[in-house]
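Sequence only, no structure available. Ideas?
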Amino acid sequence: MRFRKLLAVVGAATVAGVLAPIPPADATTPLAIGQVLVGGSAADTGYDLDGVLEEAGVHMQTLFGNGELGCVGGTAAGRVNGGTTGVRPAPAFTFDELSLDCDSFIPGTTVDMDLSGCDVEVTMDDHDVHAGLGDTGPGSVAGLADLTGSGGEPCVRVTTNSGCTLWIGGAVDAEFHEAATPVDGVDHQELRLVGTGLTVAGGAQAPTGCLGIVSAGAGLDLDVTFDVRVSGATFRAVDFAPDANATASHGPVAGVAVGGSDADADYDLHAVLTSGGMRMQTFQGYLDLGCSSGTIDGEVHGGGTADPAFTLDDLNLSCVSFYPSWSANVWRITGCDVDVDMNDDLVHNGLSDTGYKASHDPDFVSGVAHLSDGTGRACVEVNAPGGPCHLWVGGSVAVEFHEAVRPGGAQELRLVGSGLAVSGNPAAPSWCFGHVSTGNAITLDLTFDVTSDGPIDFRPAP
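Reply:
I predicted one. Tokens follow.
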């Protein structure tokens, strides 16, 4: 469980499944963002903003596997939108300049990353902010950075001095730390962009001159922190202030709304893999295996009686084999469905349970996916019977559901963590030649874009 700020909840209690009344908000009550103060001013105007890279790392899928690319320098420039002009759905930050100087994915070359053709918009959608500059560290202000233009075009251009050009689009989570941090004796604030929602573009922006080392659809994990400052000689802090007229409404998951409807109904669900892989215990030790493509189909169960929240009945996942000379492993759901229980004890009204904040607790909706049925039978079959290494996988794995709607209308579902293993039920591994055995552990980290009949919102009791 990761990344939700500790909440100062005043007087909240659950009695017989119903939230007790919450007292009126005061200065310490966490509420949704109501305005963006700049230097204490609530004026509806924009302010120039500059940033310099503090630290960064990029994790990128390449022909040679997943590569770690360090970054040694970078700058950003744009504006912060003050007053109510920076309140969701409007972006709080807009960057028209952003560059990174990072390691190259092609040995012996240098690489530049910059913006071209569209701006990066950062929408801060946090529902738990406080008055003053106290939303920082584990309690930073959460949002979403969109690296895709209004027409779906990618905004980030990557070039190497060897002639390789590619484009990156998608969205990642944003964290804004309000506390002032001195950099070379000058106060700044921190903006962190972090997450797994970026991919190498295809179509007209597909990679060129890259020797097949990077392909369209390759995933990227980003973790970049900029020290940002409103332009000018005098430090003017950016403060995401709460809405004084809002009420705090949160509690355990009590219902699921789909497309705004609370009806007790089932809706089709479709998911497409955006990034990820797995670590598998084998005869050769633990191997990291990337996954190149995958889809999931099933149902989301709407209304107030959703248990489980999702039922997954179809999986087609292609991942690198644990034995080099064999073709990719194909994972499918066979014989029983995968039930996903969303058992988070703290969710909010609206599509606001999303993002990552700190090194503990989630700000997404958390749950568990069961890859075995009630009898212990594994529900996931890897490869076909009689083929190279046929086996079954069962157990349970943690689920993260991010309610924020991503570019293109999808939401994010992540299967992550340990808890899975090669199963002997309904059958032990066959034609694996000792490379894997019953009981071998598997750790997942797979991210999917999910669509249904509308955005999925896990809601607390009224």
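DSSP finds no helices and 28 strands in the chain.
Hope that gets you unstuck.
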